Amino acid sequence: MNNNQNNHVIHVTNLSKHFGDNEVLKKINFDVDRGDVIAIIGSSGSGKSTLLRCLIDLEQADGGTIMIKDRKLVDEGVQAPQKEKTAIIADMGMVFQHFNLFPNLTVRENLELTPKLRHVGTDEEIEARMEYYLDKVGMSHRADAKPSTLSGGEKQRVAIARALMMQPEILLFDEPTSALDPELTGEVLKVMEQLASEHMTMVVVTHEMGFARQAASKVLFMNDGIILEEGTPDDIFNHPKEERTKAFLSSIDR
Amino acid sequence: MDFHYIITLTVPLLQGTVVTLAIFAITLVISVPLGFLVTLGLNSKNGLIKGFCETYVYILRGTPLLLQILFVYFGLPLIPWIGKYLTFSRFASACIAFVLNYSAYFGEIFRGGLLAIDPGQYEAAKVLGLTRYETMTRVIIPQMIRVCLPSVANETITLLKDTALVTVIGVTEMLHYAKTEVNRDGTPFPFVIAAVLYLIINFFLTWIFKYLEKRYEQ
Q1: Best mutation site among A52, A59, A97, A102 for testing chain B: the one with the most B CBs within 10 Å?
Q2: Which of A70, A73, B59, B97 would staple B69 via disulfide (CB 3.0–4.6 Å)?
Q3: Is the ipTM of this complex over 0.95?
């Protein structure tokens, strides 16, 4: 194993994906290093969510290689065996646009479900971990609430805490604030910025340019199934090279 | 009509009620899990299993329950060669027909419940590392139960009333005794008592389902 791969926690080469005749991802290459905060931006239909979902096996790539830490989820278009994939994606957590909390369980039960099933510690240890992460997202006071009684922003903060419970090395976010009322996005972004400042490795598909500008270490601009341009937030937002990047940036919130 | 007469009319009906409740309980206890298997079969990727379950539901929903009861009791024993192994008592025949029929209905109800569940629930379960079994038992089925409860309540009440049909193969359930008394005494009053007994049982059923709906509230 060479050095190069050791530095990358995610190493993607020539990733491609079709939905029928529609080529959604066209030979994508990109790397994520430990502690990176990658913001993936681009218009809808550009393939950014599909890319993210391929990384955690919610979509299956049909070409290319996806390496998570030192293990191959997909090798030259060949999927790893299911058991292997389960072990690989355990290194990652995911936060969804629509939260996907389990409505039949309380906040506490949502957080404790997997840790208890996997016996990662005694009940007291899991309880303490649950309290730690709920406190981190500022939701300790709602531990016994059912998700249906929470606001969108609260649900998303709980979802982030839940994703952290198995202590993943990488957190993936799929448009985490897109389903929220504008006044509720701030509380979620604050939690994400906090995680970024603690050097959590994060890959964030987002329309929040403010977040990308402030918290990202690298910004990828996707257009029509390829990464058209990538760079630091300063590169992308202040000195975009590609016409499509400029057009996209000027079309949004300013 | 004195009080004593009412009692003498009611006692046999209560005996019949035990049989009614037995058929009701046996059917419910077996056909709910069996119905869930039918649901899994209807959703199966295996074409053979799926086709079998679809045909099963089509036949059992598409023919009268009364016919099914008659077929199990009178029809099955007449099948050449295997008929002698398919000969059941009146009571057993009644239970078999009900279980087969209600499994088909419950299968369809549960299928509807599964369709109502947000695909995001499966995705969240997967990225959290739940196994398929854990996903079903911890996440999907509890939500499915909540969605299905009103339909299941409806079906359960129908089941209780449908048990009266088994009187055609001579099972001595509640209505059987009521009919006998009406013929014997020339009074419609036993029918009224039977109606009251059905209503009392349904009162409890309604109450139980209200409680369950409350418990599965989200």
Answers
A1: A102
A2: B97
A3: no
